[in-house]
Amino acid sequence: MPEKTADVAIAWPEPRDKRDPFINALDEECRVRQISFRCIDEKTLARDARDLAAGRLKIRVLIDMASETFDTAHPFTQFVYRAKDSGARIIDDPDAVRSAADKSITHFDLVRSRVPVPATIVIRHWEPSRRLSAQERELLGTPFVIKPALGFGQQGVAIVRSKQTLAEIARARKFSPGDNFLLQEFITTRVIEGRPAWFRVYQLFGEIIPCWWNPETHEYTQVTLRQMDEHRLMPLMRIASEIGRITRVDWFSCEIAQCAKTKRFIAIDYMNDQCAIYPKSEHKDGVPDELISLLARRLIEKAWEHLRGQFTLAHRAIWFPRIKVKDENI
Predict the structure, then answer these.
(1) In the predicted model, is pLDDT for residue 325 greater than 60?
(2) pLDDT-based confidence at 316, cuts 50/70/90?
(3) CA pair distance 36, 6, nearest whole angstrom
(4) If exposure means fewest CB atoms within 10 Å of the residue's CB, which of 68, 148, 168, 251 is most exposed?
(5) d(Cα 281, Cα 273) in Å, to the nearest integer?
(6) Mapping DSSP to helix (H, G, I), strand (E, B) and coil, where does residue 5 land?
(7) For residues 120 and 257, what is the distance between their CA atoms, to the nearest angstrom?
């Protein structure tokens, strides 16, 4: 029998900060339900890995915020897989993430499912000198975006503003050698209420949380019920739900923009796991504090259902910010 059991654990890539609102919210939600919680950070990882391997530690649900998807030598990656192999439910499952994180694969899965995506040309890593045909140039237009298939957090993304693309691709390859690249049409977004119609939408076990997100300042604001109805934003829900169905990833965010010309909603960035979770009260570009509390509560509620054998994805929900009596933007 294991000496220690964690009903819910989180793999955290840095030393735990006792002030961190997300970790503390997870801990408190576990206390309310009288289930155990454990934070496995870089200080405790080696010891916890030994205990897990020796059977002295049992983890029932593990929230992974620390592994490196394509680095199987990374200690947190190995820990997450060992936890999975020992029977833990992983949020997010590393094999589902590994498949979905490669945009050069997921792009075609979305196209087959008729999820609206930008016009795209995939440049394979073995084609360093590939030149675009006249038809491909016309499809992409100018400017267009180049991004690494395995990129994240807008790293390695560049906007190409001229027809000379080989130099741009060469510069991008320095960021991610050996990676495939996506060349995509640049989406000029509609402006709604003075801000770009660009959204970061969270999907959490089938539940959808839409946020306005500024691609330049990276600032978040939750979409209200009034805005959802008035600006006909329901396609956000359908796209995020379909990405969840296709990728089989429990918790992720995606970026969706509304094209100014066609008014179509288009999936710009398909699936981002290990969502950034620092609070808006401390960082200008942070996640709204109320949303952090909601994410923590729903994660633990789902973990609790799993522990009780009652886990289900039969329902869907959309989460909006709480109504404030004097808020004219409701």
Answers:
(1) no
(2) low
(3) 5
(4) 68
(5) 23
(6) strand
(7) 16
Tokens of 89: 């439910």
Token pair listed for 116: 């609206």
What phi and psi, each to the nearest 5 degrees, are found at residue 39?
A: -105, 120
Residue 184 near residue 119 (C-beta atoms within 8 A): yes
Parallel/antiparallel/unpaired status of strands 57-64 and 37-40: unpaired
CB atoms within 10 A of CB 164: 8
- pLDDT band for position 5 (cuts 50, 70, 90): very high
Q: What share of the chain is helix, strand, coil (3-state, %, to 5)?
A: 30, 25, 45
The DSSP code for 47 is: H
For 235, phi and psi rounded to 5 degrees? -55, -25
Please tell me the distance from the alpha carbon of residue 94 to that of residue 68, in angstroms, as a whole number. Answer: 9
Q: What is the DSSP string of 246-309?
A: HH--SEEEEEEEEBTTT--EEEEEEEE-S----BTTT-TTSBPHHHHHHHHHHHHHHHHHHHTT
Do 322 and 290 touch, CB atoms closer than 8 A? Answer: yes
Q: How far is CA 80 from the centre of its chain?
A: 18
pLDDT classification of 16: cutoffs 50, 70, 90: confident
Per-position DSSP letters for 199-248, written without gaps between them: EEEEEETTEEEEEEE-TTT--EEEPPHHHHHHTT-THHHHHHHHHHHHH-
Residue 273 · residue 101 · CB < 8 Å: yes
Answer yes or no: are the C-beta atoms of 295 and 204 closer than 8 Å: yes
Q: Which is nearest to 291 in space by CA: 304, 280, 303?
A: 280
Q: What b-and-e string marks burial along 62-84, b requiring 16 or more CB atoms within 10 Å of the CB?
A: bbbbbbebeeeeeebbbbbeebb
Residues in Cβ contact with 226 at an 8 Å cutoff, skipping those fewer than 6 apart: 329, 330
Q: Are strands 317-318 and 207-213 parallel, antiparallel or unpaired?
A: parallel
Q: 244 near 206, Cβ under 8 Å?
A: yes
- DSSP state letters, 83-110: HHHTTPEEET-HHHHHHHT-HHHHHHHH
Joined together, the tokens standing for residue 261 give 């010309």
